[in-house]
Each structure stands twice: as C-alpha cells, then as structure tokens.
C-alpha cells in the first residue's frame, strides 16, 4: 500500500483518531483487492472474511427478497470501513455487497484481526467505536424517516452521498434512491425533477449530478 492509499484511509474519522501503533498493526497484514462494476464482494450468509476499507470507488449494500427484488440500503464510498459486525458476533454476513463502480479495497483478513485482538484485547474498544458509529447513523436514519418530509429525505440523502464520496456525480439510479429513502419511484422522480428545475441537480443516465451543494443542503 502506497502513501496515497494511506492518505485516503486516514480521511475516515474513526481511523484517523486511532493511535499510530493501532493503525500500523491493523494495516500490517492488509492486502489490496480490486472489483469490477457488478462484482460481488460478499453475499448474505457468507462466512466472515474480515474488515474492509474503500480506497476508491463505490459499493452497494442491499438485500433481496424471495421474489428476487433488490432493496438498496446504502452505499459505501471512499475511506469508509465496514464488515465489523461479524467481527463481534462471529456470525455470517447480513447483506449483499456489490461493486457499484470499479473498486479498490483494503482488506484485513479475519485471521489477522483475531490474532491482533488476542495479542491486544484493548483494541476491542477501538473496533467497538467503529460499530457504535454505525449504530448512531442508523438511529439518525430512523429519526429522519419519521420526521422529515419526502423532499427533505431525498435532499439529505443526496448530501450525505456527496459528502462521503467526495464527488459531484453520484452513480445512483432513481430506483436505488427510492429504496434508500423508502419512497416510491414516482415520488422520487417528482422531487428530482423539482430540484433539477431549481438548478440544484442535473439528472443523467443512471446518475445524479450535484450542481449546487449549498442549495441542496438548504432543502434538508
């Protein structure tokens, strides 16, 4: 892993605030892997394979019902760590994770994590903070679902994706945005058309371009 890759993962608040010793030990046995758009990283029910961090690209976290309908839950973008749930309970993967675009990932294997925690049990606290960050985000999402208007939900979700991906053009379909906000495809289209009419976004094929982030934030 080169200095540029290290610079990317240090953008994550959780990783950045860890001690240098912890960071060095965590990435010591890590390896870089690449995926093409559409490739599966892992699927629901798969065994725990360790912890991941996105170097560049976008991953899609989703679930599929018995009829084969996919519901997009979230996107994982640059510098975001994930996969820690199975680290704590030793269980299987809870959702499907696919490459939305071409992706480069840092992968810390499960065996390396187990050995690290056997040698340094105090590091459970560090991983616990990573997990609680996700729980806090989940509570925020539930609150937004209960209290925000449809337009506020869409605007806030787009702002979050913009801020986490550090890019203005989001590789996101209207149906995926509908799944993430628990709104209908028709409602999403109406809101996006309104935002486009106000020169806040620009609708493209299977993507949404953020034209004015300040105006978009004012809609939240």
Automatic annotation (TrEMBL):
Residues 148-214 form the HTH crp-type domain. Pfam families: cNMP_binding, HTH_Crp_2. PROSITE patterns: CNMP_BINDING_3, HTH_CRP_2. SUPFAM superfamilies: cAMP-binding domain-like (SSF51206), Winged helix' DNA-binding domain (SSF46785). Residues 14-117 form the Cyclic nucleotide-binding domain. Keywords: DNA-binding, Transcription, Transcription regulation. CDD domains: CAP_ED. It comes from the Bacteria. InterPro entries: cNMP-bd_dom, cNMP-bd_dom_sf, Env_Response_Regulators, HTH_CRP, RmlC-like_jellyroll, WH-like_DNA-bd_sf, WH_DNA-bd_sf. This is Transcriptional regulator. It comes from Pseudoalteromonas gelatinilytica.
């Amino acid at each position: 892993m080169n200095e540029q890759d290290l610079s990317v993962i240090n953008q994550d608040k959780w990783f950045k605030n860890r001690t240098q010793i912890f960071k060095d030990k965590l990435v010591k046995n890590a390896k870089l892997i690449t995926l093409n758009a559409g490739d599966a990283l892992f699927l629901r029910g798969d065994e725990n394979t360790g912890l991941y961090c996105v170097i560049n690209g976008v991953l899609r976290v989703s679930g599929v019902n018995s009829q084969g309908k996919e519901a997009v839950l979230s996107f994982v973008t640059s510098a975001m760590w994930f996969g820690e749930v199975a680290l704590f309970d030793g269980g299987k993967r809870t959702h499907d994770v696919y490459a939305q675009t071409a992706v480069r990932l840092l992968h810390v294997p499960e065996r390396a994590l187990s050995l690290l925690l056997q040698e340094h049990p105090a590091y459970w606290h560090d991983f616990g903070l990573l997990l609680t960050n996700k729980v806090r985000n989940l509570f925020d999402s539930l609150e937004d679902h209960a209290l925000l208007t449809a337009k506020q939900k869409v605007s806030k979700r787009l702002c979050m994706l913009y801020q986490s991906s550090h890019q203005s053009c989001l590789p996101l379909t209207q149906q995926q945005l509908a799944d993430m906000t628990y709104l209908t495809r028709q409602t999403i289209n109406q809101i996006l058309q309104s935002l486009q009419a106000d020169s806040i976004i620009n609708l493209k094929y299977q993507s949404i371009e953020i034209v004015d982030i300040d105006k978009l934030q004012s809609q939240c």
